[in-house]
Structures are given as structure tokens and as C-alpha cells.
């Protein structure tokens, strides 16, 4: 690995550490939480390597994102979450670390890892006393199965765990789901604009329902974007969102609601193709910029 002079932990450079000294926790708004969890992937692997590679690539970023400088609000990179133990233990570890960030007044940004990690973040928000929030999800898959291959903590079941907590859900860009998930959508009143509605018409904005909570946690699975943009994921599906469309949809939500945190999951680096690692870092930073400018 390239030498980095600022590390959150061995193998984990701090985000954008080439441009500024690591701030004190209390001086940073944005808190990066690496979550290198990879246990239930069902096709290609590599998501456990994603967080470190995104952090490495962030050293090639400019602090000016084209519209503002979100790093001025402070970016603190935490050591990776403890991955030892079974799935329930790891989810609880993620929840504990997220809770600590929120209770200290920070804005949590999870870097996965498989999509299961989102449930840990949601549990952390709940444990920190965050109320009246919904989840907006960009993804190729609905992830609403009760269990997959007998695993209730599967990446294919993460959104079922979320709606089981009574949290409203709005799904964007879905294009791979089973009949069970269609029924679960109906049972839990899951809002959705699927890929076949968004992509052919290049829809870049939409109105959240009036009754959708004022606070939103946004979860972005890399495979929600088209494989032509991000082939670097374990379960690519054709017909996904484009780069600017994805950012526009995120900003559309940020203009309507208060974003209280987000994650970027399911990034699986492809050896020798640094462009995708860099793109994931750019995506993460641009999402910070959108949050900064709309809050």
C-alpha cells in the first residue's frame, strides 16, 4: 500500500488527509465510519476492501468540489468498526459506534462493506434517540426478503430489518426483486420509483410524499448505479442510474428534507482499475457537499 502520513488505523488513511490535518472529533461535522463487513455476499466479493480503497483514493481529491468546500466543516475519519463476532454482534458494533457519533453531534457517513451495515447504522440512530426519520434508498435490489439462504442479516434482507423497525422507506432505482418483496412493499407501504420509471426518462427529481418524515437517512448501494458507471460491485444489474442522475436525486431529497446521515455500500474494488476507487471517493465527497449546501 502507498505510504500515508495520516491514518485512522493501520491500512486506513483519513479521508482527504492529503489536504488537511486530521481535526479533533469535536471540531468536525462529518464523521467517516469505515465498515469493512463482508459476510453474506451472494455473487462477487470484495466489499470488505471497499472502505480502505475509498479512503486511499480520497487523497487525490480537490477540497473544492466544484460548488463549495465541504471539508471546511471538518471531516473526521474513525478507525474501522470491529468486525469480530457473528452478524448480530457486528451490527451491534456498528450501532454502538454510530450512536457515539450522533450523541457527540456528528453527522455519520458509513463506508461499506456489504449493505447489511446500514441496519447497524439505523440501530445506532435509534439508540441515540433520533426520532421521526425515514430512509431513502438507491439500489438495484429491493433487499426486502425476510431472509436469504436462512440469514436474517443478509444484505438481501437489510431493508426488511429497517421497515420492521417501523421506519418509512422510499426506494429509488430498483430493478431486481422477487414476488416476496413485492408483497412486503405492499404490507409496509414502501414508496418506490423503480429504474424502469427513472432511467428511460432520465428523471432527476421527484416529490417525497407529504407524510414522509422530515429527517432522512440516505443509503446508496453502488449497484444502484449502472454497471457502465460502477462495474465495481458484487451484484451488478444493467439499467441503472447514471452519475449526474444519482447526484441530482440525492440533492432533490436534500432540498426537501433534512439529511441526518448517509452511507455508500457494496463497493468492491477491481484491482488495477483505480478510476472506480476514485469515483467512489468523489461520490462520497460530492454527497457531503450537497448536504453542506442544503442545510
Automatic annotation (TrEMBL):
Q: Does the keyword Manganese apply?
A: yes
Arranged from A to Z, the UniProt key words for this protein are: Hydrolase, Manganese, Metal-binding
Q: What is the lineage of its organism?
A: Bacteria, Pseudomonadati, Pseudomonadota, Gammaproteobacteria, Oceanospirillales
In short, the EC number is 3.5.3.11
BP-aspect Gene Ontology terms: putrescine biosynthetic process from arginine, via agmatine
The GO terms describing molecular function are: agmatinase activity; metal ion binding
Q: What enzyme category does the UniProt record give?
A: hydrolase
Signal peptide boundaries: none
What gene is behind this protein?
speB
- Comment on bound cofactor: Binds 2 manganese ions per subunit.
Q: Record-annotated residues binding Mn(2+)?
A: 115, 139, 141, 143, 221, 223
Q: Which cofactor does it need?
A: Mn(2+)
Q: Protein name, please? A: Agmatinase
Instruction: Kindly indicate whether the keyword Transcription regulation belongs to this entry.
Output: no
- InterPro entries from the UniProt entry: Agmatinase-rel, Ureohydrolase, Ureohydrolase_dom_sf, Ureohydrolase_Mn_BS
Tell me the Pfam families matching this sequence: Arginase
Q: Which family does it belong to?
A: Belongs to the arginase family. Agmatinase subfamily.
Amino acid at each position: 500500500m502507498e505510504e500515508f502520513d495520516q491514518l485512522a488505523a493501520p491500512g486506513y488513511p483519513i479521508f482527504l488527509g492529503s489536504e488537511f490535518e486530521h481535526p479533533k472529533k469535536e471540531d468536525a461535522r462529518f464523521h467517516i465510519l469505515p465498515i469493512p463487513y463482508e459476510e453474506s455476499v451472494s455473487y462477487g466479493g470484495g466489499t470488505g476492501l471497499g472502505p480502505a480503497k475509498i479512503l486511499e483514493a480520497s487523497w487525490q481529491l480537490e477540497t473544492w468540489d466544484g460548488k463549495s468546500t465541504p471539508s471546511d466543516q471538518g471531516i473526521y475519519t474513525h478507525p474501522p468498526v470491529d468486525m469480530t463476532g457473528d452478524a448480530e454482534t457486528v451490527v451491534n458494533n456498528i450501532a454502538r459506534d454510530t450512536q457515539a457519533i450522533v450523541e457527540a453531534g456528528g453527522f455519520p457517513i458509513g463506508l461499506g462493506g456489504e449493505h447489511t451495515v446500514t441496519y447497524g447504522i439505523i440501530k445506532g440512530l435509534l439508540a441515540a434517540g433520533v426520532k421521526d426519520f425515514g430512509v431513502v434508498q438507491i439500489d438495484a435490489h429491493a433487499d426486502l426478503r425476510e431472509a436469504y439462504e436462512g440469514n436474517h442479516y443478509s444484505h438481501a434482507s437489510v431493508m426488511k430489518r429497517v421497515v420492521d423497525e417501523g421506519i418509512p422507506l422510499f426506494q429509488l432505482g430498483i430493478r431486481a426483486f422477487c414476488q416476496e418483496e413485492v408483497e412486503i412493499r405492499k404490507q409496509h407501504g414502501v414508496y418506490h420509483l423503480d429504474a424502469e420509471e427513472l432511467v428511460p426518462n432520465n428523471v432527476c427529481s421527484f416529490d417525497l410524499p407529504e407524510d414522509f418524515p422530515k429527517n432522512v437517512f440516505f443509503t446508496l448501494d453502488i449497484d444502484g448505479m449502472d454497471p457502465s458507471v460502477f462495474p465495481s460491485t458484487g451484484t451488478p444489474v444493467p439499467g441503472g442510474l447514471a452519475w449526474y442522475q444519482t447526484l441530482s436525486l440525492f440533492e432533490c431529497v436534500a432540498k426537501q428534507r433534512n439529511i441526518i446521515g448517509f452511507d455508500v455500500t457494496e463497493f468492491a474494488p477491481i484491482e488495477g482499475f483505480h478510476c472506480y476507487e476514485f469515483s467512489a471517493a468523489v461520490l462520497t465527497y460530492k454527497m457531503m457537499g450537497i448536504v453542506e449546501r442544503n442545510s
